[in-house]
């Protein structure tokens, strides 16, 4: 080895031979490095392949057309839009004024001589093999050359007649229909024959039916109106082909007419950001491409990659140390034959290089093969087809180089340690005694203090998440650097332990070079788990305290607000039949106009009602004043704060939520009170006497009545509201009984019987049902209920009150399992290294008559000691970032609260609740179960007997 090249070539050949000889250890390290490379490479390939090029995006959006025209919905006023055509806003800033609304005739903006293809979208409840299914209806002549690329025909053919349709494969799968089946819509008797199956490349999970233009939506709307229902809405865009296409200047010209244009030419060659008026408008900047966004992404990516590499190095480092220790005689022979320390380091580093290269090649090749093989599965999971299979060599090469770098970094410490051993010690197997570094723990202590200070400053003073995260990372690295010294402190506990654990602890402390990296690897994994678990447990406690029940425990509600409650009888019967119902209370709602009018009015022949609040009962802050956008601005913050605290008219109700009718008014009998747990004999008597029961003090006027205004002219009512005047309409005054106190009503503010509503001249329609149950419905009963209600085709709002439910338990379990696997893996590697070091001691123990189980026991305790030390240190280190983040959230919420108090929108007593909760169950599992499991596993896989041999003199 006379030259650098020849010496490294020889070192690599030796390392390759050693890796091949120790196949198990090599495969373990290769897997640790290759798996992240496999995952990241596959993710890169998937993301890049799913990112469409401008040409692919244009084909899927506008087919072969040159542009897509659509109405902005602002009544034809000039607008600004982005190049893609997804974002738009009026060019004029209307602020708090009245924004323009309305439609514009887009066809008048299409240039003469253009070829136009209409594309209309609506929805309908379509008959299926199982019942009814809300389905998107699209009217587009899919066989036209202009539409090529929007839909992919899978089977059959495109529709050619008005009674033919084709459907997406997802719709056919969901509905149970097939090509050749007939379908129709609710309230629409015309049958349509399915002649083809297709998919939308950008939306594979969309249930859609395609018909020829004018073949479905218009006749369906007429049929709905004939049945007394509002005509279903639809929207139309126009695919335009024009010689020369549409430039950005032409798009801006069309924007002046209130038309949004998605141009192929602009998609392929977008303008500079300075030429986009929308992005020059305040609040509409393109943040995704800003330097701040790019810096944030790079910082987040760098942090994740760095921590992942650190974890792999901490896990793989001891494995390389195992190889170096088992090859120390070979390394000693290299030194005895004239090899320098640099040659020893080169051999060990070459081991990392060989494994790193092999891991890079393995991970990259597997990523390519698996991504290609699983492409259909990935596309289905993402809900869209890939564009071209996009392999970016520089990105793949960069990811592969991370594997090589990780292998080299993991082998640096074992290489330096091996090169410092003398030739005699290597040849005789002596380990020698080397003092631990005194500088490294001091550096680690400094990092802990600095990182903790940064995290504390970020959480208490600056309220910046990045400072909390960065400070916590620095502190955790400091704890890693202090690990050798901390391991030494654990050794003082050995005096109180029995023989086997005392030997294991002594061995771990005396050989900190192999113990510290394994402990640090466990520390890092456990710290992350504890941090996330603490944050999630704290958030859970906060959400539990803030949770508001919508019903008494175990009660059920089911509401239908569409089509005039047509399916409500079936819903009530289904709930009664499938659930353990104790008391059932049917409820209705007040409705004005046709029976099928929506809940909040709107549409031809539809009105709405309003529960009248007497002027004397209105909160002064909310009384509309002509010419004032915000009536509360008439008062000072001190006045607003005083009203919020002292004026009962301005205090928000705490009765919960769950009733979404105007004024919280429902129509029903006394059973509603029983289901909701409201015990008031006076309320029951009032209902029987034809009175309306009120739980809201502000609704009852001085005469003890509640007024209900019937608004038939929606436009006039909206105009009156803009000027601060009452809406025109007849007011029915109904005698009221106000329930004393503040009972929990779950959003119900007023209740009257159907007879009372009829006597007041109010028409009602079925809304749904409340039901109390003998016991909380189980999962099977709820699944059956959901299945039966789905067949009805209506949107049924079902709620089963089961109290606060923790949705994070499975995540905490997964994190604990992950931390346990990493802990066992790291402790196992350290145990293997310990056995290699302690082989001579084990032989001596066997020679002097120690029973065979001592070997197993010692091995188990060695593994358990490493796991226990890592878990204890990791648990302590993981609490810092979680506490810092919670303190940051608390500080932020307190600031918002102080601003709300200063502006008069809140009282000083409404302090935010942001607790810090330690997940003791998770910690107990990590502190007890994981070390115990690691110890038992190591004891089980260790052979009881070893070959007795002469111990080398030391």
Question: Layout of helices and strands, plus pairs?
Answer:
Elements: H1 4-21, H2 23-50, H3 54-62, E1 67-71, E2 79-81, E3 88-90, E4 115-127, E5 132-139, E6 152-156, E7 164-168, H4 169-175, E8 182-185, E9 188-199, E10 208-211, H5 217-226, E11 235-241, H6 248-255, E12 259-263, H7 264-268, H8 277-280, H9 291-326, H10 328-336, H11 341-373, H12 375-382, H13 393-420, H14 423-428, H15 439-462, H16 465-490, H17 499-510, H18 512-546, E13 556-560, H19 568-578, E14 581-590, E15 608-612, H20 637-646, E16 665-667, H21 671-675, H22 681-688, E17 692-694, E18 705-711, H23 714-722, E19 730-738, E20 750-752, H24 754-759, E21 764-773, H25 779-790, E22 796-800, H26 809-847, H27 853-903, H28 920-941
Helix pairs in contact: 1-11, 2-9, 2-11, 2-13, 9-13, 9-18, 9-26, 11-13, 15-16, 15-27, 16-17, 16-18, 16-27, 17-27, 18-26, 18-27, 19-25, 26-27, 26-28, 27-28
Alpha-beta classification? alpha+beta
How much helix is in the residues?
Answer: 40-55%
Average residue-wise pLDDT: 80
Overall geometry comes to globular
Q: How would you describe what is shown here?
A:
The protein has 28 helices and 22 strands. With 954 residues, the chain is α+β, with helices and mostly antiparallel strands. Mean pLDDT is 80; it is low at 947-954.
Give a short summary of the structure.
By secondary structure, this protein is of the alpha+beta class. The chain has 28 helices and 22 strands. The protein starts with a helix and ends in a 13-residue tail after the last helix.
């Amino acid at each position: 080895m006379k030259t650098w090249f020849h010496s490294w070539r020889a070192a690599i050949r030796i390392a390759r031979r050693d890796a091949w000889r120790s196949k198990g250890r090599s495969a373990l390290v290769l897997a640790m490095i290759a798996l992240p490379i496999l995952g990241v490479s596959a993710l890169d390939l998937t993301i890049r392949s799913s990112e469409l090029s401008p040409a692919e995006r244009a084909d899927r959006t506008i087919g072969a057309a040159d542009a897509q025209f659509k109405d902005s919905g602002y009544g034809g006023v000039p607008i600004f839009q982005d190049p893609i055509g997804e974002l738009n806003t009026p060019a004029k800033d209307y602020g708090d004024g009245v924004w323009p609304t309305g439609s514009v005739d887009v066809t008048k903006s299409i240039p003469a001589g253009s070829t136009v293809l209409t594309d209309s979208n609506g929805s309908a409840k379509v008959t299926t093999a199982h019942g009814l299914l809300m389905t998107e209806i699209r009217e587009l002549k899919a066989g036209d050359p202009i539409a090529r690329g929007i839909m992919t025909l899978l089977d059959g053919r495109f529709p050619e007649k008005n009674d033919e349709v084709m459907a997406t494969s997802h719709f056919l799968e969901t509905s149970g229909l097939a090509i050749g089946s007939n379908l129709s819509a609710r309230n629409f008797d015309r049958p349509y024959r399915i002649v083809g199956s297709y998919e939308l490349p950008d939306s594979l999970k969309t249930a859609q039916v395609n018909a020829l233009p004018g073949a479905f939506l218009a006749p369906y709307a007429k049929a709905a109106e004939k049945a007394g229902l509002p005509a279903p809405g639809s929207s139309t865009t126009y695919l335009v082909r024009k010689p020369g296409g549409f430039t950005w200047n032409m798009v801006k010209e069309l924007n002046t007419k209130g038309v949004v244009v998605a141009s192929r030419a602009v998609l392929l060659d977008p303008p500079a950001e300075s030429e986009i008026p929308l992005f020059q408008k305040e609040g509409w900047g393109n943040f995704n491409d800003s330097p701040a966004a790019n810096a944030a992404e790079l910082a987040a990516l760098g942090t994740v990659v760095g921590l992942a590499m650190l974890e792999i190095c901490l896990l793989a480092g001891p494995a390389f140390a195992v190889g170096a220790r088992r090859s120390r005689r070979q390394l000693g022979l290299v030194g005895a034959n004239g090899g320098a320390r640099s040659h020893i380091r080169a051999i060990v580093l070459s081991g990392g290089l060989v494994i790193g290269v092999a891991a890079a090649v393995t991970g990259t090749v597997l990523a390519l093969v698996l991504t290609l093989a699983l492409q259909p599965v990935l596309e289905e999971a993402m809900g869209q087809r890939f564009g071209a299979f996009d392999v970016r060599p520089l990105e793949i090469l960069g990811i592969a180089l991370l594997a090589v770098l990780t292998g080299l970094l993991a082998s640096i410490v074992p290489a330096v340690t091996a090169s410092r051993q003398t030739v005699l010690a290597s040849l005789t197997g002596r380990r020698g005694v080397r003092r631990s570094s005194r500088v490294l723990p001091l550096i680690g202590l400094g990092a802990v203090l600095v990182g903790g200070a940064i995290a504390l400053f970020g959480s208490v003073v600056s309220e910046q998440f990045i400072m909390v995260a960065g400070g916590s990372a620095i502190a955790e690295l400091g704890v890693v650097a202090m690990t050798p010294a901390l391991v030494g402190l654990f050794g003082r506990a050995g005096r109180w332990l029995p023989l086997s654990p005392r030997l294991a602890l002594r061995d771990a402390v005396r050989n900190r070079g192999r113990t510290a990296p394994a402990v640090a690897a466990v520390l890092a994994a456990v710290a992350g788990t504890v941090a996330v678990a603490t944050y999630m447990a704290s958030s859970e406690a906060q959400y539990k305290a803030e949770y508001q029940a919508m019903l008494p425990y175990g009660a059920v509600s089911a509401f239908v607000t569409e089509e005039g409650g047509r399916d409500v009888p079936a819903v009530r019967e289904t709930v009664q039949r499938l659930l353990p119902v104790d008391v059932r209370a049917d409820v209705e709602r007040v409705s004005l106009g046709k029976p099928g009018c929506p809940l909040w009015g709107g549409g031809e022949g539809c009105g709405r009602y309003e529960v009248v609040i007497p002027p004397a009962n209105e909160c002064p802050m909310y009384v509309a004043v002509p010419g004032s956008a915000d009536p509360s601005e008439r008062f000072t913050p001190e006045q607003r704060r005083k009203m919020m605290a002292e004026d009962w008219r301005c205090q928000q109700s705490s009765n919960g939520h769950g009733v979404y009718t105007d004024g919280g008014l429902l129509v029903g009998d006394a059973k509603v009170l029983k289901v909701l747990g409201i015990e008031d004999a006076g309320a029951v008597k009032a209902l029987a006497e034809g009175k309306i029961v009120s739980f809201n003090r502000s609704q009852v006027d001085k005469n003890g009545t509640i007024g209900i205004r019937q608004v038939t002219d929606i436009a006039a009512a909206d105009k009156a509201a803009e000027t601060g005047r009452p809406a025109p309409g007849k007011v029915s005054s109904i005698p009221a009984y106000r329930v004393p106190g503040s009972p929990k009503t779950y959003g119900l503010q007023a209740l009257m019987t159907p007879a009372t509503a009829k006597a007041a001249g109010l028409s009602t329609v079925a809304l749904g049902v409340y039901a109390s149950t003998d016991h909380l419905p189980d999962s099977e009963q709820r699944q059956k209920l959901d299945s039966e209600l789905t067949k009805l085709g209506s949107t049924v709002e079902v709620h089963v009150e089961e109290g606060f439910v923790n949705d994070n338990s499975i995540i905490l379990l997964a994190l604990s399992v992950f931390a346990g696997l990493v802990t066992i893996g790291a402790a196992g590697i350290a145990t293997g290294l310990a056995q290699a070091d302690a082989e001579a001691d084990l032989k001596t123990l066997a020679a002097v008559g120690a029973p065979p189980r001592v070997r197993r026991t010692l091995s188990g305790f060695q593994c358990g000691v490493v796991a226990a030390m890592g878990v204890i240190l990791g648990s302590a280190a993981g609490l810092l970032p979680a506490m810092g983040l919670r303190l940051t959230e608390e500080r932020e919420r307190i600031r918002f609260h102080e601003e709300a108090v200063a502006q008069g929108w809140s009282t000083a007593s409404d302090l935010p609740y942001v607790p810090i909760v330690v997940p003791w169950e998770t910690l107990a599992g990590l502190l007890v179960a994981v070390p115990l499991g690691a110890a038992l596993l190591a004891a089980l896989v260790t052979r009881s007997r070893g070959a007795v041999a002469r111990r080398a003199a030391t």
